[in-house]
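Usage

Read records sequentially. Each one opens with the input sequence:
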Amino acid sequence: WPPWPAGMDPATVVFGLVLLGPILCAAAFFLKPYLDWRSRCDQSLESQISRTSFRYSPGELVPPAWKAPEVVLSVVVPAYNEEYRLPQMLDETLTYLEGRQDQAFTYEVIVVDDGSRDKTYAAAMSAASREPPLRNGEVRVIQLAANGGKGFAVRAGMLAARGQLLLMADGDGATSIRDLERLERALSPAAQGAEIAFGSRHHLREEAIAKRAWHRNLLMIAFHFAVWVLVGGEVQDTQCGFKLFRAGVGKNIFASLHLYRWAFDIEVLILARYFGKKIAEVPVTWVEMPGSKLNLLTGAITMLRDMAL
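and closes with the structure output:
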């Protein structure tokens, strides 16, 4: 073996190497959102899709900004391993939308399968071919080639949407689709210029705290404090998965999105402020659904990391 360099303590070198491993792991964890964004930002959306329920010509999946909306409402539903919860949500959503009384009302429901490992795509396709056929709208299903995160799935659906209004709705059906009308009223001309409506569960906060375990409450309080420090208290509930956008505003925001995991809602709020768009916060009906894919501890840690980045 070659002689050890003079003046270098072997114990110090070994300690440095042992310490280097955790530092590199921490750096990789911290930089992951940026690396995810960099790996996808130069690729077209079409190149990141494995299949769809509809046909489109190359370059036509994302409607150009100058093209007029083709339907009144687009409902974007991100879904990851939701083969069991998605069918009921879609059934309730389609029943409600088909029952709207306005004769001029048309819609599309865009289910974005975020690289699921179960039969989520098949479940969405079943809704697309339901009987009797839909009269006022259609279900369009997009399957991503790889899991990109909830934010990326919502972004894909929003960019492909063709509606005048764009609704983000979680695939678990925790928020009643009928609360769409509350959000629509918040964007009406009489609502003082709001162009984005955030569904909010803040009015249910005290009841939720009383039912949750203490450690869940502690984590949620810490998370809300971090959000308050970062973006202030204008919006009390940033994380509710029920948000309505005017088309131009929504597409500009999601085209500019960098965070693709759970913290993307906070970036949506930051971008809305950057673009000078007013947000209305609207109380909605909400029921906690079993089968959530979010681990509270790891989710809180990754959200705080994304917020810091």
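Summary fields computed downstream for this record:
- The chain has ten helices and eight strands.
- The mean pLDDT is 84.
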